[in-house]
Write a structure and sequence with these properties.
Layout lengths: L1 H10 L5 H12 L5 E4 L6 H9 L4 E6 L2 H11 L6 E5 L5 H4 L4 E7 L4 H5 L26 H7 L2 H12 L4 H14 L5 H11 L2 H6 L5 H11 L2 H14 L1 E11 L2 H14 L19 E3 L9 H6 L7 E7 L8
Parallel strand pairs: 1-2, 1-4, 2-3, 4-5
Antiparallel strand pairs: 5-7, 6-7
Helix pairs in contact: 1-4, 2-3, 8-9, 8-12, 9-10, 13-14
Bound molecules: S-adenosylmethionine.
């Protein structure tokens, strides 16, 4: 048991932990507070919440059954204060018994997923091109995307989700290669990327497969569209005084968060109205002005946190209320 807890704890370092606990503290200190970790992962953030806020209970959602199993072992010592739920968080409101006092979305992939080499997330091992976070879903795998998407679609995926400069060349090579033999393994893809991406660029921009693998993972798991839906559902399921914290790793994720939070915290009064009527007052207020970033110290300790942005918002009045 002790070993399993150690294992889960060692497999993913929770990002911006102190900043998140401090930002959520006013809502978590309330008696019987409900904390929702909508991307449970290895349960690092949830463990810290349950330790620091002795009266809080937590619901942890993950689409990855292996993450749920490991986090479940790690959090078993909290008894019925913790409940794990296997679900996709796009409709988080449907999973909750009541509005949440605090909620966290730590978007993206976990170190567990990257480390489990046979799941195809890593370009460092030759494995089946799977990349589904939910191993029970019959959704498309990365191999399916490479074998069925049109060349234009592949180019768009690589350019938008991977910010890959050589998206067109790579998409062309993917289609040419699959005419010879369908894509099945990551090793062959890495080899092809090494041959297509100019050497000078490989020297400057890190591993040649990094951006393509990120793009495929985002497409396979429908991460950006999913996040657009999830953020609306999350805002809907916050109690008054409840806070939502979001850690984004990709600039497009952060843009979606920023836009959703700006809309939620803006007055709906028509322009030119001299006085704001109660029904036009926003239902939310921003807790972080702009996005918070990790400290120098954290960046040094955990390079994975390099691109992260934290935004926090609070529900200040009930949905549709006029008070
Ligand atoms: C970055 S990790 C979370 C790490 C966690 N905060 C910790 O400290 O251990 C993200 C997790 O969210 C899960 N996830 C990503 N998108 C999801 C979605 N749409 N619905 C449910 N879980 C999702 C992934 O499977 C992964 O386990």
């Amino acid at each position: 048991m002790e070993m399993s807890r150690g294992l889960a704890a060692d497999r993913h370092v929770p990002v911006m932990l102190t900043e998140i606990l401090d930002a959520l503290a006013p809502s978590l200190a309330r008696s019987g507070a409900l904390y929702v970790d909508a991307t449970l992962g290895m349960g690092g953030h949830t463990e810290a919440v349950l330790e620091r806020f002795g009266e809080a209970r937590a619901i942890g959602i993950d689409r990855d059954t292996e993450a749920l199993r490991l986090a479940g072992e790690r959090l078993a010592r909290f008894g019925d204060r913790f409940e794990g739920v296997h679900a996709v968080n796009t409709e988080v409101a449907d999973v909750l018994p009541r509005p949440a006092d605090a909620m966290l979305f730590d978007l993206g992939v976990s170190s567990l997923q990257l480390d489990e080499l046979d799941r195809g997330f890593s370009y460092r091992a030759d494995a089946p091109l799977d990349m589904r976070m939910d191993q029970t879903s019959d959704g498309p795998t990365a191999a399916d995307v490479l074998n069925t998407a049109s060349q234009d679609e592949l180019e768009r995926i690589l350019k938008t989700y991977g910010e890959e400069r050589f998206a067109r060349k790579i998409a062309h090579a993917v289609v040419k290669e699959r005419e010879k033999q369908p894509w099945t393994t990551s090793g062959r893809l890495v080899e092809m990327l090494r041959s297509v991406i100019p050497l000078a660029s490989q020297r400057q921009s890190g591993h040649p497969a990094k951006r393509t693998f990120q793009a495929l993972r985002i497409e396979v798991n429908d991460e950006l569209r999913g996040w657009e839906q999830a953020v609306t559902s999350a805002l809907d399921s916050l109690a008054v005084g409840g806070r939502l914290a979001v850690l984004s790793f990709h600039s497009l994720e952060d843009r979606i968060t920023k836009r959703a939070f700006a809309t939620a915290s803006a007055s709906t009064a028509p322009p030119g109205l001299p006085v704001e009527l109660p029904e036009h007052r926003p239902e939310f207020a921003l807790v972080t002005r702009g996005a918070a970033v990790p400290s120098e110290d954290e960046l040094e300790r955990n390079p994975r946190s390099a691109s992260v942005r934290l935004r926090v918002i609070e529900r200040t009045r009930a949905k549709g209320s006029q008070s």
